[in-house]
Amino acid sequence: MQLESRRESGPRRIVHIDMDAFYASVEQRDDPALRGLPLAVGSPRERGVVAAASYEARRFGVRSAMASVTAKRKCPELIFVPPRFDVYRAVSRQIHAIFERFTTLIQPLSLDEAHLDVTQPLIDLGSATAIAAEIRRLIKEETGLTASAGVSYNKFLAKLASDYRKPDGLFVITPRMGPAFVETLPVAKFHGVGPATAAKMAALGLHTGADLRRQTRAFLTMHFGKSGDYYFDAAHGEDNRPVVAGRQRKSLGAETTFARDLLTFEDAEIALASLVSKVWTSYAKGAMAARTATLKVKYADFQTVTRSRSHEDPIASRATIEDIGAALLRPLFPPRRGVRLLGIALSGFESPATRQLALSLA
After folding, report:
1. Per-residue pLDDT for 192 more than 90?
2. DSSP for 65-76?
3. Which of 235, 261, 282 is where one domain is finished?
4. Catalytic (active site) residue 113
5. What domain range includes position 101?
6. What is the value of pTM for the model shown?
7. Residues 239-267 as b or e (16 or more Cβ within 10 Å = b)
């Protein structure tokens, strides 16, 4: 089944490409001895976390973001390999170069997935489906990896379609199929619905797309603000969000989980300084200016708190980040429980011209 080429008032043609178990697949590609084995990219240490899991490991219930000790318990034969992000980024650039042969409207979501608007492609193969199939073929041929693709008339449904036949699959949701496809979809599958929003929806008796569709737009906006408009449209198979090429960075940060919980402000301040150094190194190389610094603290019981402070002027020095971070950190000590994770992030980015002015005045 294929989407028709766009006419004057016809639908957009959106492709969502999602690499299959990307990090783990790269490791299995580069080391044939790992192929067919349950593999986790990450650290096996007590406080380690799984960054990615091969499909062989997923059969045992191993998932990304799972604690390594839990993953090992689920799959005693699990093999851990350390991540090689430089390699993953290099492969991601290869894949992105393939996308660029077909369209300039590419919105990366991460290293391993992206939305492409091929309504007016650089190479028209007759349908979005044919373009998606050719992209998958080229990825396999040039990188040795497999990708799944979803094709539809909006971003929401294209992403759902790419999940439908993973791994190494291609699925199309046509305009005629869209509304019915959403009916049985759990609300947690809707873009932007996290655990807290899903729980709020459940309390209102909203469990599926059909439940959302039965509500009025006014009801959804009353309970969910501007997002209510999106939920209303999505429940009817509609999503007007454009594919945004070269999307502006919203935040830049670093965080780390400690082998032993931190109990004193002095130890936490030292750890924070190391994180600030990493963030500043990346920030100083960029072109955008940030005004807000956010501290993240996760305690031994996994309770997480964040504290933010906005600066009147764009942040123009490492010392400014350190000062804001320390000021946000100090009131949290002494903690009732040890600190297992710290993070610091910059946000509120502005234009390159604003940044240049800030740096010249610093």
Report:
1. no
2. T-BHHHHHHH-T
3. 235
4. yes
5. 14-21+86-177
6. 0.69
7. beeebeeeeeeeebbbeeebeeebeebee
